[in-house]
Amino acid sequence: MMVDPFEVRMRFTAQLQHLNASIASSQKAAHYALKYRDMDEDLHSCILEQLERNNMNNRANIMYFIEQFCEMATKEDHAPYVRMIQRDIIRIVDTVAPPDGSGAANVKHVRRVLNGLQTKEILSAATVSEIDAGLKERETHPAHLDLEAEDGAEGEARAKGATPRSTRGRVDKRQIEQRIEEDRERNKRLRESMWTVSGDDGDEHGRFWDEASDIGEDDFLAAKEELMERNQMVGAR
Fold first, then answer.
1. Pairwise CA distance, residues 157 & 40, whole Å
2. Coil, strand or helix at 144
3. CA distance 155 to 172
4. Tens of pLDDT along 106-146?
């Protein structure tokens, strides 16, 4: 049965629009794109379009999706998807965390994904370092709007009967709450991954055993002296 390219594009677009902080949503979209890999250029263009058209929350979610997507594409040996991400990575970063500072809240997420792509050997250390140098100005750019300060200034203006200043670039409350919840989920997952162990710690035990020195007469003497000091302290009470 012939698949309608327009329908594939629309479904993939919908999946990108509904991405959230869960790995499952990213994997679902990645599986779909890999299923229709013969349309890789068209589906890659969907990613770029959605980055440009969506709000900052969605852009952050798509950024995390890209890391998951590249990893899965590499495992399934479909290099074209990875090469297109490598080619357009600067454009992607500029959309998720624009140079004008409007996406300052996304800078830390961009860095996290870039480091992940470097660890997975999808991006080179030189590329990540070059992009990171440009991100330093964006997280403290004066164009970045401080929502709390803006709310305070607006409330003060209303109290004085003045007209509140323009709130261009304001993020609505629902988006803020959604972002907080998604960041909490990502941080939780990050902490869990930091504590994940393989379960095979025989090598580590062996290393500790090799590094530890044998117990000698000096060790027994030091222990005896410490015991005597403790007994003296107890007796002095």
1. 52
2. coil
3. 16
4. 999 999 999 999 999 999 999 999 999 999 888 765 544 44
Tokens (6 digits) for 145? 């709007």
Look up the pTM and report it. Answer: 0.68
Nearest to 108 by CA among 135, 90, 127, 133: 135
Q: Reduced to 3 states, what is the DSSP secondary structure of residue 106?
A: helix
Tokens of 162: 């003045």
Domain range annotation of the chain: 1-143
153-158 mean pLDDT: 47
Right CATH for 1-143 from 3.40.50.170, 1.25.40.90, 1.10.1740.10, 3.90.940.10: 1.25.40.90
CA–CA gap between residue 207 and residue 103 (Å, rounded) = 46
Q: What is the CA radius of gyration of the chain?
A: 27
What would the pLDDT profile of 184-229 be if each residue is shown by its tens digit? 777 776 666 555 555 555 565 565 556 555 666 766 777 777 777 7
**Does residue 164 have a pLDDT over 50?**
no
